[in-house]
Amino acid sequence: MMVVQWYFNRERTKKSLRGSMKKSILYGLKSLGTLTVTSFITSWFFFIRIILEYVLKRMNTAGSSKVVKAAVWFTRCCLSCIQKIVEWFNRNIQIYAAISGDGYCKSMKGAVKLLMAKIFSNLFANNLSSFFLFIGKLLTSAVGAIVCGSIIYADTKQIMLTPTIFTLLGSFFLSYFVIEIVKLVIDTIYFCFLYEETYMMREREQGLKPYAPGDFAKLM
């Protein structure tokens, strides 16, 4: 909500950002029904996947043929892909609801229309951001391990791999959650840009300044 209010604010001063924070709380309460529905759908699909995973494990244990193993592997891949797609759509529905203030059904219709209209650019932007964020996770993990190893070596004059490896894994684990938040912010800003380009062209024709920051608009 806060990112949406920040984007659709031409001033972006400290005073206006305080007002955006209040608006984000108000819009968050207004969109609480949409958030509940999307969370319920995601949780329900996750529950179904857990049940199917259990069935697939039993099938894999009972049957040792290559056909059964291939079928189990293929089904797991399909379930994982479908879950990612459902989560992606639900996240964009929530963003659309935060922008427009509409309910779940209208937000779903509007979000699907926006995403399908520029499906290739959406996939490209999503994969590009995911790639750079993954590089960020690796760099964060590597820096954490190097710092830990350097501190240990400076103190003991020995290279100790065990604490360094644990630090590497811990840094990757922590960076995963932090960078997921960064990814959510990036997706929200991009979706706001799509919304502005699609539904707010009349303001452009009237000569009003676009909401998108100048450098971001040039990049897109």
UniProtKB/TrEMBL annotation:
GO cellular component terms given for this protein: plasma membrane
Signal peptide annotation: none
Topology of the protein relative to the lipid bilayer: Multi-pass membrane protein
Main location class: membrane
Cell location: Cell membrane; Membrane
Recorded superkingdom: Eukaryota
Sample GO molecular function, one term: transmembrane transporter activity
Keyword annotations from UniProtKB, A to Z: Glycoprotein, Membrane, Transmembrane, Transmembrane helix
TM stretches of this protein: 31-52, 131-153, 173-195
Function: Choline transporter.
Cited PANTHER family: CHOLINE TRANSPORTER-LIKE (SLC FAMILY 44), CHOLINE TRANSPORTER-LIKE 2
Family, as annotated: Belongs to the CTL (choline transporter-like) family.
Protein's UniProt name: Choline transporter-like protein
Native organism: Hexamita inflata
